[in-house]
Amino acid sequence: MITKSFVVKNQYGLHARPARMIVEEASKFRSAIYISKDGEEINAKSIMGILTLEARKNSELILRIEGEDEEEAMQALTEVMEKISLLEEQF
N or C end: fewer C-beta atoms under 10 angstroms in the chain? Predict the structure, then answer.
């Protein structure tokens, strides 16, 4: 099991489009992938789950991955998290 924390940097928070990007990437892996915020943990392969976190700017998220391809999944999702921040700064 590996974990990593992220801070939501964009001003609109984790809304539908970045949530979809996370779900699409997470769904490529066999590992169990979870995101938590303020003690609430959801399945990162569920867009509704991600949206229920209501992650706003400066929210801290913890990504927890457990499974046979956890290292690859963490690397891919880290890139998605960075891409989301870069994309949102353009709006």
Answer: C
